[in-house]
Structure formats: structure tokens, C-alpha cells
Amino acid sequence: MLEIRDLHASLGDTEILKGVSLEIAPGEVHAVMGPNGAGKSTLAQVLAGRDTYTVSGEVLFNGVDLLALAPEERAVAGVFLAFQYPVEIPGVGNLYFLRSALNSIRTARGEEELDAMDFLSLAEEKMKLVSMDRSFMGRSVNEGFSGGEKKRNEIFQMAILEPALAILDETDSGLDIDALQTVAHGVNALRSPERSMLVITHYQRLLEYIVPDRVHVLAQGRIVQSGDKGLALELEKHGYAGFEVAAAP
Amino acid sequence: MTEISSDVRELASREYKYGFSTDLDEDVVPRGLNEDVIRLISEKKNEPEWLLEWRLRAYRHWLTLSEPHWQNVHYEPIDYQDISYYAAPRPKPALQSLDEVDPEVRAMFDKLGISLAEQERLSGVAIDAVVDSVSVATTFKATLAKAGVIFCSFSEAVQNHPDLVRKYLGSVVPYRDNIFATLNSAVFTDGSFCFIPKGVHCPMELSTYFRINAADTGQFERTLIVAEEGAYVSYLEGCTAPMRDKNQLHAAVVELVALEDAHIKYSTVQNWYPGDAEGRGGIYNFVTKRGKCAGANSKISWTQVETGSAITWKYPGVILQGDNSVGEFYSVALTANHQQADTGTKMIHIGKNTRSTILSKAISAGHGQNTYRGLVKVLRSAEGARNHTQCDSLLLGAKSGAFTFPYVEVKTPTAQVEHEASTSKIGEDQLFYCRQRGIPEEDAVSMIVNGFCREVFQELPMEFAVEAQKLLSVSLEGSIG
């Protein structure tokens, strides 16, 4: 499904990712954990196609060279990023935005567009997943949303777009325990043998709800250790301090 | 911002969609301005003596004036002697129906997608079409006449309703108002006149499409709308112009008068030729628009979507004279390439408990320079007056500019005046977010810009709102390389 080989990414003169390699099979959920500044969000942004980074290495997504695609082409290919900080787009209705997104993707795939009525019933069904009420529909994209509402909105969008690869960038940050459970419930409902997930988090807490198949520790731009879900618990106990020393050149 | 810069380069190279000119048989007065030219215009239009005198007074006053320099726009000096002040299609017999309209004129409207026949059949909107300076067709007159509404060209009004014209002409914008209004008063050739009698709710939206056609002919329109006690009218003005090499001066005057309990809603979509990618050519849009809420509880709303012209310089304002009267100004101004806009409003509070709302949305792309300039003046008599002003600017690319100059003068302690302003760049973050969701960059730019303007579009009549959104999208079309 996803093969990352020796991925480097720099912002100006600063190298942030220094050779990341990772493979995710269909249906697997991988967690990437690490201290602040390790490059976790950079990894998410680079995979989604943010062009502010200078990137080298190789990323194959179902055999396709992902790095050669524009962000919208990656979305068409099935890549979805749940943003750590979802942006506000004043004056653009949430549902209008999402229908435009879905229909852009469908058109690019040569599928028929969904009309307003069909889309509405799809949206109503998917909103239940993350306990969103109808008032979300009329509001502008993320405008005036609380932190928790923004994160729920991301998962709602993911449910509509049904990506092959979902990258969740610190979806747990800023959530209280109730909101965390709601979001995790939504994510778990979307787990399937065809859908892979890359869950990026600083804390082990999220992984109690979204149980990963593999856990990777990212420190100073490299993956320094990989293991099963037990690794996350170990990190909780000992912190990242040891890894930062280990990763130092 | 690399990608946005390339957007903007593309935006700068977009071609003006309506750049064509129609070969009409024109009747053009030689270039230059003097009393003889004014006498000639007045004579050609068979005007009464008082109107000629008024024109001449304006002209003599104009000779004493010089152009102001406080505005935030730059242009080559205008040679007023190099302009022809009158152009009319050759006189024809009066028209009984649209079929009698010059086929070339019809074809031109077809090209613009505003064919009169279609408008008449489908939309129920009456159009008083102005080609250059003479009205060629007026529709729906019968329906309007039944309601007692007068909607005709200014020239016809002078012939058929001279007392009304004489009573209200210059009552809101006096001929001494400013150099361009003064020039207009001296040389105006035609325009629209609209009168809604007491208690009448105008049965349809009134619409005028203006066209500038003859080369190097300055166009001096004059519009006068009067709503008597309790009357209501919604008036739509939309414009396009053919491509020209030389700058064309457009100095129109619009006067609105609302008596007690009357409501006038005036909406504009302006898409005149903005000049080429280097900023050559394009219309100078120096317009004076003002309304007077003369009676208590009256209301005047200006809504404008300004995407065209090389230079837009106008401040549609409201004089709030009647107690409890309401003035509104909703504006979207888009400047791309080398376009410049210095626009805003003037709200003059005189009556008690008068209220005004100002909402300005400015979008700058390329080298576009966009200035909001607004005056809120509350006189001592305007006890309990309230104003709310909001000015938002959106920048596309690094070379565009946005400026806000709010002027506030308050003479009464019971007034309440609020001002909010914001400036934002169309964010990399917003664009990336949209694109990550699968929305192509060009669609994303259009979506974000339209979202930014939504509050203003909501104020437009339905068909105009659709047109305005299309216009913005077309203006941003091809913005992705």
C-alpha cells in the first residue's frame, strides 16, 4: 500500500526528515510517536503534498510515485490528511465545501457527481459517526468551531471521502476525554481491510482507543525504533529521552 | 507564495472577455469643450431653456475647478479638449417594439449574453438600454405605466416630465459638488429616469445596461430615481465596455431621493474594460453617486460589485436627513493587473436615530491597488445615530496592495460609531487544505474569494448574485499555470 524509502525533507537549510523508511500494508494501522520537533507533522505534510519542503527519497502508493503528484491528485489517489490545525474558510459552507471536494475527486476518477439530495443523505449518515448535529451543515468551514468540533469535522470529512490511506496528524491534541472517545469511535468505525492509517501522536493516550498494528518512534528526523503496541506503553513509562540520545549523530 | 505568484501572473494575462466593438453609424460631435458644444448638445436634445442655463452654469463653474489630488490612484492628466462630448446612433423613428432595434445593437447585446428579447421573455426585468448616449429600447413600459411608475431615458423625461426633472435634478448632487459631477452637469447626454409614486411597490426590478461604444467618447450618464412616500424600488445597473487603446473617462452622476417611508435599493455590477496586462487603456470610472433619505423612516441601500475599469473612484453615499432613516453600503471591489480602486461611501447623519451600515470587501491581485475610503459624519442634530463599519481586505500575491482610510466625525455625544477592519492574505494554508481534499487550485481560489464576498452577495437580487459570482470566478479564471 504505502512504501516510504529514505525520505528526506528540508525547510530552507534545516533538514527535518533525515531518511525515513516505512511500509504500511493494506488494512494496517501504524502509529508514529515522538517528541516535539522530531518531524512527525513534517512527515504528514510531505505525504499530503505540502510544497514548502524540499523533498528527496521515494514514496510509492499502490505502486504510484506519490511525490510526483499535486496535492489534489494525491487526494484523488486516496490520500487523506486529518490536519492538526484545520483551517477556517469564512463564507464557504461546510457541506458545500465537502460536496465540492467529493465531486472533484469523483470527476477526476471518471465517476459521476453526486447530486445535492444524495449528498445530503450521505452526509447525514456519516455525521452520526462523530455525533455532529445538523447545525454543522450551514456553518462555514471550521469557522468558530471549538478545537473538538474541528477535529470531529476532520473525521467526518474522512468518512465522506473514504480514503485508502488516512493520515491523522495529532488528532488527539486539544481534546478532552469525551471528545477523544468520540473521535476515536469515528476512526475505528472507518477501519477496514482496504484502508490503511498512519496515526501521528505525541501521547500514548490515543492509542488506547485506536489500537495500532505497529508503533514507530520518530526522533530527530529518523525512525529509531519500531515495535508492536507494547512499544507505546514503554514510551509512556520512560519518555523519549533515551531515543533522542540514540538518534544523535 | 511561489504558486500564488504564478496564479497572479496568469490572472494578469487574462483577456477581457467583452473586448469587441460594434460598427454603428455614429453621430459624433467634434472633440473639445466650450459653450457652443454645450448649446449644441442641448439643442440636439431639444431641451428647455432652464436646462441649458443649468448646464451653462455648471460649465462656467467647472472652468474654475482643478482636479483633486488626495485620492490614492494615479493616472495621466486628462485632456478634456481631446474628448468628444456627444455620440448618438443616427436618429431613427421612435420604436414600437424590440423588433425595431438596430440589428447590430441587438447582436451586441447577444454577445454580452443580455439579449433584450431573452430578458423580456424570461426574466421579467425591464431594461432601458443605453448604447453610447442614447437609449435605444425600453421594455415593459406598459406594465410599469399601469402601476404609475415612470421608467424612461433621461431625455424622454426632460420632454415628458419636465417639472419632475426640474424639481429633483441636482437636489442631491448639486452641479457644484465636485469637478466630475460639475462636468457631467454641463455635458450629460442621457441616462435613466425613474419615478415611483406614493405608496407604489414597483412591480419589477428595474435594470439598465450601459455600454460605452464610440472610440474616445467620454460618457456622461445621468440617473435620477425618486421614490415618493411609502414607495419601493429595486434598481439594477450592469456594465461592460469594448476594448480600447486609449483611456476613456466615465463621469456619471446618480441621484436617489427617498421620501417618507420609501425604500430604494440600488445594485451595481461593474465590469468595464480594465486595461491590458501592462495597465494600458481601460476606463476611468469617476462616478458620483448619492442618495438622500429626505423623509422619516426612509431607506437607501447601495450594493456594488466592482471588477472592471482601470481606475474606480467613487463613494456612493447617503444623506440621512429624515428621522429614523437608514443608509446601507455593501461593496465588493476586485483589482487585478494594474487596476486601481479608491472607493467607499459617505454616510451623513442629520436626522434623529438615523442608522447606517457599511460592509466593504476588497480583493487585490497582481499589481492591483485597492483603497477603502469612507466618511461617517454625525451632525449635532442626529441624536442617537448609529453606524457600524466593517472593512475587510484580501490580498492575492506579494505585489498587490490594500489600504483603509476611515474618516469619522461625530458632533453628538449620543451617537454610537463602530469600525472594524481586517486584512488577510489568501492563505497557503487555506489553499493546501482545499487541495488536500481534492479541490483543484483554481477552484479553491475561486471558492475562497467567493466565500470572502458572501455577505455582500447576499444583498444582491438573486439574478445579480449569480452574475456577480460568475464574474468573480471568470476574473480569477486561468489563474493557475
Summarize this structure briefly:
The complex is a heterodimer of chains A (249) and B (481). Chain A is an alpha/beta fold and 249 residues long. Chain A has helices at 40-48, 71-77, 94-108, 116-127, 135-138, 147-161, 177-189, 205-209, 230-238, 241-247, and strands at 2-11, 14-24, 29-33, 54-61, 64-65, 79-82, 89-93, 140-141, 165-169, 196-201, 214-219, 222-227.
Quick tags:
heterodimer; A: 249 residues; Rossmann fold; 10 helices; B: 481 residues; 10-stranded mixed beta sheet; 6-stranded parallel β-barrel; 24 strands; globular
Strands of the widest sheet of chain B, in order across it, are 4-3-7-9-12-14-17-20-22-24
Task: Tell me the span between the first and last alpha carbons of chain B.
Answer: 14 Å
Overall radius of gyration of chain B: 22 Å
Proportion of β residues of chain A?
25-35%
As for the CATH topology of chain A, it is: Rossmann fold
Helix-and-strand structural type of chain B: alpha/beta
Spell out the helices and strands of chain A N to C: EEEHEEHEEHHHEHEHEHEEHH
Q: Which outline of chain A best applies?
A: globular
How many β strands of chain B by DSSP?
24
Query: What is Rg of chain A?
Result: 18 Å
Shape of chain B: globular
Number of helices of chain A: 10
- Count of helical segments of chain B? 12
Task: Give the averaged pLDDT of chain A, no decimals.
Answer: 91
- pLDDT average of chain B, as an integer? 81
**Number of E strands of chain A:** 12
CATH architecture of chain A: 3-Layer(aba) Sandwich
Supply the CATH class of chain A. Alpha Beta
Q: What is the topological layout?
A:
The complex is a heterodimer of chains A (249) and B (481).
Chain A: E1 2-11, E2 14-24, E3 29-33, H1 40-48, E4 54-61, E5 64-65, H2 71-77, E6 79-82, E7 89-93, H3 94-108, H4 116-127, H5 135-138, E8 140-141, H6 147-161, E9 165-169, H7 177-189, E10 196-201, H8 205-209, E11 214-219, E12 222-227, H9 230-238, H10 241-247
Parallel strand pairs in A: 3-10, 3-11, 6-9, 9-10
Antiparallel strand pairs in A: 1-2, 1-4, 4-5, 7-8, 11-12
Helix pairs in contact in A: 2-3, 6-7
Chain B: H1 2-12, E1 26-28, H2 35-44, H3 49-62, E2 87-89, H4 103-111, H5 116-123, E3 126-131, E4 134-138, H6 141-147, E5 150-153, H7 154-160, H8 162-168, H9 179-187, E6 190-196, E7 206-211, E8 221-227, E9 232-240, E10 248-250, E11 253-258, E12 263-271, E13 283-293, E14 299-306, E15 311-314, E16 317-320, E17 326-335, E18 340-343, E19 346-349, E20 355-365, E21 369-378, E22 386-396, E23 401-410, E24 416-425, H10 428-436, H11 441-457, H12 462-476
Parallel strand pairs in B: 3-7, 6-8, 7-9, 8-11, 9-12, 10-13, 11-13, 12-14, 13-15, 13-16, 14-17, 15-18, 16-19, 17-20, 18-21, 19-21, 20-22, 21-23, 22-24
Antiparallel strand pairs in B: 1-2, 3-4, 5-6
